[in-house]
Amino acid sequence: MSEVKYDSVLCGFAEEPRYTEDGQLMGWSVRFKDHELKEIADKYATSRNEQGQGGNVYFTMFVSKNGKPCCRAFDPNSAAAKEKRAAKLAAAEAETVTSDLPF
Q: For the chain, which residues make up each domain, given as ranges?
């Protein structure tokens, strides 16, 4: 059995979704304490480049397999995220090598 690596961590307290009168999902919310929000910004913010772009924290709201609302934050420092970046960089380098071919 292979070990699954995740690039996100669960965080926050997601509240039950709100639905419209005809049963369509209207939305749901997540709440953080002030110290949790600071910790999330410190741990999970993406790096900034020379132009100052970056510094984002990506959240995903989803429903778990057992039907509970959840919130997760993308962790750019996780092993899975680092592997994905390395694979993307290797694929880009391979494409530049093959794009030099005249045919």
A: 8-76
